[in-house]
């Protein structure tokens, strides 16, 4: 009846009823205005040195809250934004907002704080990307060596030469480069030699499923590979004491996960992690 109309309206936007095709179409359209309508915000998750429990920085993670759709996961909307050609603008917003929010944190911790920002493959289609990032760092007085950009292997495979040029330009300025979600995609290891990678982020699907014996072997191999190439390993998705113990035994230097903290609002992050130096 009429009484249920409001409820039905909300139900309508749920995936089961809307259908994936229509939902994706709606998301695509709504994303076009999401920056102007200020529907995005950032959360920050601490990056931890496993041997000492010391915080070494934070990963900035994008959140989208839409008036009808509610909170939409980045796992859902980022691929859609990519396909619609929207990740260049959204990615620029993420970078500037990350710098705006963490500039003071970085100054307060001197050279002790890394800001990690995910960069979408589409941002590498912009030949000016490296110059733009460097100019923006300058505007916010952030030393380039304290920015860690997270890229995925998909990007490397897709647009090899231009991506490599942009990465080298950033690298020359001191920007750090992390290979995100490592161990899930093609993992063709040969490009590790030609790309200037500083950190490998072991994908959380490996960390979270240590019961599968082969995953332990894969993680061990990734850590050894990283060490032998002077690349720093960080394990994502640490949720339990057991996972942490295994990673420490295998000399995985850094980690991130719900065991330490979930992504937090910037104010909460600052009051928990940046008041004193001890976690
Ligand atoms: P990612 O870059 O691999 O980021 C880590 C994801 O793992 C985050 O999911 C984080 O909340 C989640 N996570 C961290 N620790 C744990 C844990 O212990 N257990 C579990 N189950 N999950 C954990 P989130 O924030 O939902 O982001 C998902 C993905 O969306 C990111 O994966 C990244 O690829 C993409 N993304 C997020 N923000 C941005 C952005 O600003 N730009 C771009 N291009 N991609 C982004
Ligand atoms: Mg990441
Ligand atoms: Mg990522
Ligand atoms: Mg990842």
From TrEMBL:
Top-level taxon: Bacteria
Domain EAL: 24-277
Name of protein: Diguanylate cyclase/phosphodiesterase
A GO molecular-function annotation: cyclic-guanylate-specific phosphodiesterase activity
Natural source organism: Sinobaca qinghaiensis
């Amino acid at each position: 009846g009429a009484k249920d109309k409001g409820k039905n309206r909300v139900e309508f936007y749920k995936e089961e009823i809307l259908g994936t095709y229509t939902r994706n179409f709606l998301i695509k359209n709504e994303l076009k205005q999401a920056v102007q309508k200020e529907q995005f915000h950032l959360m920050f998750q601490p990056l931890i040195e496993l041997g000492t429990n010391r915080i070494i920085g934070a990963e900035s993670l994008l959140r989208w809250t839409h008036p009808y759709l509610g909170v939409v996961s980045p796992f859902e909307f980022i691929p859609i934004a990519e396909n619609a050609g929207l990740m260049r603008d959204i990615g620029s917003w993420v970078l500037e907002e990350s710098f705006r929010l963490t500039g003071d944190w970085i100054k307060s911790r001197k050279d002790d704080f890394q800001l990690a920002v995910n960069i979408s493959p589409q941002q590498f289609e912009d030949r000016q990307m490296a110059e733009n990032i460097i100019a923006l760092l300058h505007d916010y007085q952030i030393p380039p060596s304290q920015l860690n950009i997270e890229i995925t292997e998909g990007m490397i495979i897709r647009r090899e030469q231009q991506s490599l040029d942009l990465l080298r330009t950033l690298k020359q300025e001191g920007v750090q480069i992390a290979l995100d979600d490592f161990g899930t995609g093609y993992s063709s290891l040969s490009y590790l030699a030609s790309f200037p990678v500083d950190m490998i982020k072991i994908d959380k699907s490996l960390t979270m499923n240590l019961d599968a014996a082969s995953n332990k072997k894969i993680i061990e191999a990734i850590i050894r590979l990283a060490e032998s190439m002077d690349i720093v390993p960080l394990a994502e998705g640490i949720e339990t004491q057991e996972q942490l113990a295994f990673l420490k035994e295998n000399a995985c230097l850094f980690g991130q996960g719900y065991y330490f903290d979930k992504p937090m609002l910037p104010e909460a992050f600052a009051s928990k992690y940046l008041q004193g130096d001890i976690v």
